[in-house]
Design brief:
240 residues; alpha+beta; Class II Histocompatibility Antigen, M Beta Chain, Chain B, domain 1; 2 domains; 5-stranded antiparallel β-sheet; 3 helices; 22% helix; elongated; binds 2-acetamido-2-deoxy-beta-D-glucopyranose; glycoprotein; MHC_I/II-like_Ag-recog; Ig_C1-set; MHC_II_a_N
């Protein structure tokens, strides 16, 4: 939730957003503000001013040396001018100027692991576990598919905080391993544009008991087979 960080009668801040990463190591600040005689538009990262608008020179200034490779944003100066104009408008409406600074934590993407509760044996009840960790903010949504069909009956615990301020959550799905079944857990989170998925292929886990090298070869040959099958299927469709 937004936190009011400071208050001053001098400036109206149109927006001031301070973003801190979950581990507290990095912070990002963006300020747009004005008074009747002064305007400011500034971007900072980790305590350094990365860019500001110079309204006299009519351009964005990137004060860091060029080898730091400051990110130049096209249209940033035009945006700053537009912000100043609406800030000046607000100054007329708001009787007492104030500074508001929103503090938020940046979103951090989760990492996902999939494994089973017990050693896998065909036909023996077991539980698939989808462990999601390192994300901010909470929560994530986890959904499961079996052979590309949605399955219900999974459970998920409430978000649990990690030491670094991020969260973890675990989803469980009871299943009975059968040859050829492929399970997938899909994780949705604010930081992701599309779900992050992990696959559990029963065959790989039951049959590949030798060194992982053989497992890799077996899996590759299997995939070549699937690709060839798909190719002929497509050809067949084209002829009809
Ligand atoms: C295995 O799971 C199914 C469905 O979840 C259940 O009906 C069955 O009793 C279980 N079998 C054993 C041996 O636990
Ligand atoms: C989780 O699912 C709910 C209900 O479908 C949805 O409103 C919400 O936005 C989802 N959350 C994320 C992080 O995708």
């Amino acid at each position: 939730s937004p936190t009011i960080m400071f208050y001053s009668p001098l400036l109206l801040f149109l927006s001031c957003v301070l973003c801190v990463s979950a581990d507290g190591q990095h912070s990002d600040i963006k300020i747009a503000g004005c008074s009747d005689s002064y305007g400011e538009e500034m971007y900072g990262l980790d305590g350094e001013e990365k860019a500001y608008a110079d309204f006299n020179k009519q351009e964005m200034i990137y004060p860091l040396p060029p080898f730091v490779d400051p990110m130049t944003v096209p249209g940033a100066y035009e945006q700053a001018v537009a912000n100043q104009q609406s800030c000046q408008q607000n100054l007329k409406i708001v009787p007492e100027a104030l500074i508001l600074c929103l503090m938020c934590l940046c979103t951090v993407a989760p990492s996902v692991m999939i494994y089973t509760r017990d050693e896998v044996e065909f036909g023996e009840n077991n539980t698939l576990i989808c462990h999601v960790t390192g994300f901010y903010p909470a929560p994530v949504n986890v959904s499961w598919t079996k052979n590309e069909q949605k399955v219900t009956g999974s459970s998920i615990n409430t978000p649990y905080p990690n030491k670094d301020g991020s969260f973890r959550q675990t989803s469980r799905l009871d299943f009975t391993p059968q040859l050829g079944d492929i399970y997938r857990c899909a994780v949705e989170h604010l930081s992701l544009t599309e779900p992050l998925t992990k696959i559990y292929d029963v065959e790989v886990h039951v049959l590949c008991v030798g060194p992982s090298v053989f497992c890799g070869v077996g899996l590759t040959l299997g995939l070549v087979g699937v690709a060839a099958g798909t190719f002929f299927l497509v050809k067949g469709n084209e002829c009809s």
